[in-house]
Amino acid sequence: MTNIGIYTNLQFREYQNELLLLIQSLTSHKKNIYLHKSIDETILKNFSSTDLLKKINFYDNLQLIAKKLDLLITIGGDGTILESIHHLQEHIQTPVLGINSGRLGFLASINISEINTAILQLLNQNYSIEHRSMIELCGEKMFDGGNMALNEFTIHKLDTSSMISIELYINQQHVNTYWADGLIISTPTGSTAYSLSAGGPIIHPQSNSLVITPIAAHNLNVRPLVVPDDVLLYLKVSGRAEHCMISMDHLSKAVNINSTFTIKKSKKTAKFLNLYSSNFYNTLKNKLLWGADRRN
Hints:
Layout: E1 3-8, H1 16-28, E2 32-36, H2 38-46, H3 50-54, E3 56-59, H4 62-65, E4 71-76, H5 78-87, E5 96-100, E6 110-111, H6 115-123, E7 127-137, E8 148-149, E9 152-157, E10 164-170, E11 173-180, E12 182-186, H7 194-197, E13 209-215, E14 225-228, E15 233-239, E16 243-248, E17 251-256, E18 260-275, H8 280-288
Parallel strand pairs: 1-2, 1-4, 2-3, 4-5, 5-6
Antiparallel strand pairs: 7-8, 7-18, 9-12, 9-16, 10-11, 10-15, 12-13, 13-14, 15-18, 16-17
Helix pairs in contact: 1-6
């Protein structure tokens, strides 16, 4: 891996030393580094490293330089990774390594305090590439970042206390009509995100499945449903309000309440670079405090 991009959230000023360490280490090993130009001013202000700046390529739009990258390192939380994935949609073959500088992160599993270890493992090629399934909204393009999602597609009520009605068809067969605040169609990766907070199950990232999770359903007997990921999901929305909200991961927009949506598994997958020091089960244990006795 020669060309490495770094994508970070707006809080990068809180971890400038770690960011500089990452840049110095990678450039010293002959890696071409691509940074967003907004970081240029910060580095110039806090570090008198002119020679280092000469080795950095500054970009304005990640989408325009994505095809050049062999790896994209994100520093932030899961939201930062989701943003980067949407920028990479046209070049989704670029693997992503997430370094977590936030709070609870399942995608960005490497803590920023472990950045030295992460750099060594990366340079020594102690990693594997993991493919994560994505879903897509069929039909016209609804979002600037594209119609694909790594975590979930969500329908939610908007600007009203009234519930909405969502009819669900799977492969043209009617399954249920949900009276609820909304409905989440989640990938296995997204099972630890919004779906989890709405009562959905945790699914291993390599499971070939989708999770359908209602949000505050009116009927107590309505529960999340796990289905194979090769099905076609058809959703029809109605309600008293004029609009509802739909979202693909972090992107959202208002649409007419009487809308229909078709969701299917995307042919494209997101690629993650996993260091051998991290795995899904350890992430669950660490983030959810499994096995920790908090009674005392």
